[in-house]
Amino acid sequence: MTTSTDAAATQATSNRLMASSGLTEKLVDELLTELRAERSNMREQHHELVSERKSERRWKTFFQLALIGVPLLGSIAYVIFFTSAMGFQWGPFGSVVGVVRIDGEISSQSVASAKHVIPILEKAFANPSVKAVVLSIDSPGGAPAESERIYTAIESLKRKHQKPVVAVINNMGASAAYMIAIHADKIYAGKYSLVGSIGAIITAWDLHKAIERVDVAQHVYASGQLKSLLNPFAAVSQEADAKAKLLVSQVGAAFLDEVKRARSATLKANVDYASGEIWSGQEAKDIGLVDGISTLDEVVATNWGLKTYDFGPSQDTFGLFSASLEGLTQKIGDTVASRLAPALR
């Protein structure tokens, strides 16, 4: 009886232990499941937090760059606009043929003055990307002293940098402009270009009779009889007339000698080059004033096959700020100079 009771008790205890063990396993499984879920939630939260922080950093970086970059880009744009307006050019990039312009009347105050053209020539010759220099000429001429300064600079730069120089006459290359052209290695002109006008001219007004009609007189006190040469309000004296003719003759003869030295191999014996005549491009080639009929683009493509880079100068080179002042100064200076100096035009 005791044995049976003990067995029953043992069985009951075993059953309770088994039930307890199953409950424990269930609790452990539920606990592990909860832990896994919690860990998964924590990972997701951590991932979201990291993503949010990355996003915050990106936006913070963006705003910082915008805060710095927008003013910086604005400053760069302003500098580019300002320097462009003042005539600064970017480049050239890669091998090019440099184009230097002789545009308009040549005078001390014009775009084609020595003070504007010579710095451009120096820049073009000194640039290692420039393999050759083309003088793009479109000018009726002007002051011989300005032309002398320009062609002297060309000769000096040719010796220093050993770069070929070609002159291309566009619409017109006359008088003082042609004087510059003859110092290039070759001269080209278009079929319809105007070339020549070799000589000198002085123009002066004679207004002394006009002011006499309105009962006006000008008193001139000069230290010498030719000090008031070409005064438009005084009658031209024989001495003044002879001196003006002598000046024109001397300057014209010097110009002709310059042409003969530079073009001796091509000039024709039966042509009066000192007549002041203007020839078409084809005629100029026939009498030896130019070497060929071509345009600037054709000359560059045929001889070098490179892109061109326009160094100027042009009116835009001096910018929006100085254009009006430059024009006013030019008019005043040219008016005064035209009365006092012979011109090649």
Strand content: 5-15%
In the CATH scheme, the class of the largest domain would be: Alpha Beta
Structural class: alpha/beta
CATH architecture of the largest domain: Alpha-Beta Complex
Explained architecture:
With 345 residues, the chain is of the alpha/beta class. It has two domains: 1-85; 97-340, 2-enoyl-CoA Hydratase, Chain A, domain 1. It is built from nine helices and eight strands. Strands 1, 2, 3, 4, 5, 6, 7 and 8 form an eight-stranded mixed beta sheet that branches. β3, α4 (176-181) and β4 (186-189) form a beta-alpha-beta unit. α2 packs parallel to α3 (144-161). The protein is elongated. The protein starts with a helix and ends in a 5-residue tail after the last helix.
Keywords for this entry:
single chain; 345 residues; alpha/beta; 2 domains; 13% strand
Give a quick rundown of the structure.
The chain is 55% helix and 13% strand. It has 345 residues and is an alpha/beta fold.
Task: Show the helix and strand layout.
Elements: H1 2-85, E1 96-103, H2 114-126, E2 130-139, H3 144-161, E3 165-174, H4 176-181, E4 186-189, E5 194-196, H5 208-213, H6 238-263, E6 278-280, H7 281-286, E7 292-293, H8 296-303, E8 307-312, H9 319-340
Parallel strand pairs: 1-2, 1-8, 2-3, 3-4, 3-5, 4-7
Antiparallel strand pairs: 5-6
